[in-house]
Amino acid sequence: MASWSAFAADEPRLADGIRLLLQQYGPGFGYLATVRADGGPRVHPVSPVITDEGLFCFVIDSPKRRDLERDGRYALHSFPAEESDDEAYVAGHARPVTDPARLARVARAGRAAPQVDWRLFEFTVDVAMLTRRAQGTSALGAPLRPAVQLWLDPGAHAGAHRRVPGTDALRGRHGFDTRRPAA
Description:
The protein is an alpha+beta fold and 183 residues long. It contains 4 helices and 11 strands; from the N terminus they run ααββββαββαβββββ.
């Protein structure tokens, strides 16, 4: 599980592209997907905070916060861009930030209201993806193919699929049961 800072040091241009899409409207905006207790996905809009220290999110008391406290797996997707169809995606694990000095620094950077019942989570980066879609068509008239940049944390992806002990479930890269029927 790489920190945002470690990912950004390894792939600075990719990290900058993702940061620009997440912060395209000023403060960070994105869709956060968490894992419900029954294993299904839950999606909510959030305002992620990216600093030199990492990728963070303030989460108020809510089902998504309980999801993160119970099962830290997450996926974060950028809001749609107004000028293009570019998109950014990051996935990994969320862990609560408990250090008071770090909480204060990130709260200042994210302008978090002190009177709100929020908990700060740091998001590690197992997967980062940036997709850029050029407008127009090729010389043959076909739509231009999107340019996709993908980074996988080498420490998190020794195997793309793994069996869950005690079950017959096969888990994909992000921990979801790959055999689960679509709802």
